[in-house]
Structures are given as structure tokens and as C-alpha cells.
Amino acid sequence: MPEWFNEGLRFRCTRCSNCCRHESGYVFLSKEDIRRLAAGLDLSEEEFLEKYTRVVEPAGARRISLKEQKNFDCIFWQDGHCSVYPWRPVQCRTYPFWDALVGSQEDWEREKKSCPGIGEGRLHTAEEIRNRLTARRKSPPVDAEDVQLPASHGRPQT
Ligand code: SF4
Question: Apex CA 110: angle with CA 107 and CA 113, to 5°?
């Protein structure tokens, strides 16, 4: 079925780091993200969860999100770059081609206010966009009940 982005959409990461820093937000993790990040950091999944994640409750769901630093930068934002780039979560890999951002032209235009790379650079074909949407749908945020959480996680953060 043709979508409004059938002619493709332009996007180029300008390395502004807005999506990794400055504001509080959630980087939800899927089961696959947890496996890949733990392996990349040479940790057990439990060690990884304890050191780098928190339980959050957006809209009543219990999810696992990356921790933030005191200034709201992502826990993995170090020395001006993502320190886990090869293993970064699917949420980061697929930005800005998320259902919520390409659902309509209005959604896409609104996101431009946060991301200077939207509408710039290489034209991503509709097929590439659909592939990213599929990648994210295939690796959804894990429910916190479905992972072995360390006792230290305590009360969820909202
Ligand atoms: S994991 Fe890396 S790409 Fe994702 S928000 Fe954190 S610093 Fe940015």
C-alpha cells in the first residue's frame, strides 16, 4: 500500500547529538538489545542491567530504559560520541524512521524542530524506510517482567 513517503524521505545525521543528550528521555531496550549490549561490553546480562539500565513506567507499561547521566545525557554518551555505537539499541539505529515519526507528514515536519538532519542529505527510499520500521517492530521494547532484574533496580522511575 503506498504511504505518504512513497517518494522517499531525506535524512542525514548532523551529529548534533540532540537525540542522545540534554533532555530526559527513554531509550527502551529490546531483548536483543540487552543481549547485544551485554556481549559487546563483555558483561553478563544481569551485570549489564544493573549497571546501565533502569525500570520505567511510561503510560502504565513497565519497560527497561538506559540510565541517564546527571545532566540527562545518555549513560553511553562519552567524550563527544556514543561509546557503544556498534551495539547501540534498535531505537537509536532506526531513528528517525519510527512509526510515530513517519505516521504522517505532520509528524515528520514536527520532528524537524528537534532534529536538524530531517529533510537534509540522502534520500532514503520508501523500501529502506519500511525496512527500518520492520526492524523496530521485530525488536520491540521488552516488558520488565520478562527479564531477570537485579534486586538493586528497586522502584520503577516514571
Ligand atoms: S546508546 Fe548511543 S546512540 Fe543511543 S542514545 Fe545512547 S549515546 Fe545515543
Answer: 150
